[in-house]
Amino acid sequence: MSFRNPWGLLALLFIIPIVLLYILKKQHEDRTVSSTMLWQQVSRDLQATSPWQRLRTRLLLILQIFAVILFALSLARPTFFGGEGGTHYITVIDTSARMQATDVKPSRMEASRIALIDFIDRMKVRDTMTIVRASQQPFVLTGPSSDKAVLKQYANEIEASNGKSDLSSAIQLSQTLLQDQSENGGQIHVYSDHILLGIGNQENLQFYVASGNGQNVAITHIAYDIRDNYVTALSRVANYGEERIVTLELKVDGMLQNVKEVSLSAEEEVPVYWSDIPGSAQEIEVSISEEDDLKLDNTGIVTINEDYLIKALMVTERNIFLERAISLRDDIELVKSNPGESLESTDFHLYIYDGSTALPDKLPEDGHIIVFSPSSHEGLGLLVEGELPPSGAKQKTQSQYSNLLQYVEPEDYQIAKAKKLNVPQGFSTLLQNGEGNPLLMIGEQDGRKMAVFSFSLHESNIPLKADFPILIQNLLNWMLPQDMIFAGQIFAGESLPISPLPDATSITITSPEGRKYEFDSYPAPVFYDTHEIGVYEIFQQAEDQSYAGRFVVSVPTDQVSDLRIGRDSTPGQAEEFIRTAASPFRRDIWMIAGWALLLLLLIEWWVYHRGL
């Protein structure tokens, strides 16, 4: 037996005051009474002059001493060790897309599952197991448990993913779970298609490797270019095995359009071009006809989305530098307006108020805002407290928006004058002068993103600086990301931050298998369930119109398509390790001591009231 917290045994010192209370004689007061005839049995106590008395064995004393002993044991957390067979196993199951390979029959995943279930069947009565799934993020499925039925249920539910897995993090998590074990108090068994070296303590770490010859061909890349109303597609096909000839099929919007044969040497990757695709095409798919050991990466898809223009309104007398900086984004349609001019349409995604232009009392609700040299505005909580001559400009340290100044050097900015502004609620200072007064503030209010410059561009040298367009583009990309409708391509298992349009009220994403996901547009949501391979549809619903787009979730071929990663490992290597001598069985009994203490206190209460 050992103790996890030996210092808890110091509670045994409470036995000393309990014993002292029983040998310390009660103090009596002198009183005049008519007779002592009835006090004969206690006369010795009345006549004694010593404050101490002989310790007598009493049931209450024994119960109280036992209570202190149980209390001390509860604090010390005793642990009993028995014979062999009480090992705590942590099993790590690799669920990367590579585990779908069929070079081990019926698949690497199934072979690992069969081996794990066989391992569970051979667990001894006192053995326990924790199952950890190694995916993009490690996850504890169940445990510690000795219930073989429960462990088998979780083992049967594990499936290989369509993305990569972080096996190293899963093993580190497992080692952390064993930190409170004594020496040789547990083992980690990893079921994967390769052995991971250099990950710390190897003594309690065993691998079961499911890997075959790994013959695989993959579509590693697909892209397109549009010219003269025709589309040219570029695909790349890689051979991760022996020399072979493969047949590639081109489908446009689901219809077969072309077929090509490609000869591939061992470990060769070649480009394959497809031309004369109609400009009306919306989806291009290139696939490999022949079967290989990993079917998942035999198809590549790219979607062609219609051009989408972001409407921006700039209220200004004239600012050619700002116009040119904004025009670098070809997806922004810029509308200019003179101050005080009324417009028929106010449906804009971005509003820019330049120079002396006053902000409207009621700010537009359907777009983000950039303002230069503003006046006080009650709705924003913005207060102008005078003017100041800035003494240089510098970035405020530890700003949450510091990435907006990437490749920008504000130290060379010269500003003739600026307004002294407060920092409204929800805003942060990005640029400031030498005295700490804000020159550029960034913030969000009611779903609108805002950038407030305390000065006019006309009264500075900033438009003449080479990094001025970079600053404007950084702000535009923050407010209006180029992929706010069309996310392009991401890999399976990766999260997708969604950039809502300013006037969007709800967002709906539909997966390739038809699952629908509903999101509010504010705060900006993040989509996590990207496990299906294929084309996802995304809709942003505004009050009077909707915006539709698509994005593709593909296989991370650079990390999962080369099946030869485990070819130097021996299949079934862990079988001999599973039968190694198990560590001593360990059981914590502090909870048993706690319940026994509670029961003993109830018995003591009963004895006291019975007068025993």
Globally, the shape reads flat
The total number of structural domains is 5
How many strands in all?
A: 32
Q: How many DSSP H or I helices?
A: 11
Low-confidence stretches: 567-585
Task: Please give the order of strands in the largest beta sheet.
Answer: 16-15-17-18-24-23-22-20
Global Rg: 37 Å
Structure classification: alpha/beta
The chain-level mean pLDDT equals 82
CATH class categorisation of the largest domain? Alpha Beta
Q: Any overview of this molecule?
A:
With 612 residues, the chain is an alpha/beta fold. The protein has 5 domains: 2-82 and 590-610, no CATH class; 88-212 and 567-584, 3-Layer(aba) Sandwich (Rossmann fold); 217-303, Immunoglobulin-like (Sandwich); 310-479, Rossmann fold (3-Layer(aba) Sandwich), CATH 3.40.50; 488-555, Sandwich (Immunoglobulin-like). The protein is 19% helix and 31% strand. It is built from 11 helices and 32 strands. The strands form 8 sheets. It has an 8-stranded mixed sheet, with helices on one face. A 5-stranded mixed sheet has the order 5-4-3-6-7, sandwiched between helices. Helix 7 (320-327) crosses helix 8 (468-479). The two termini are 35 Å apart.
Short key terms for the protein model shown above:
Rossmann fold, five-stranded mixed sheet, 5 domains, 612 residues, alpha/beta, Immunoglobulin-like
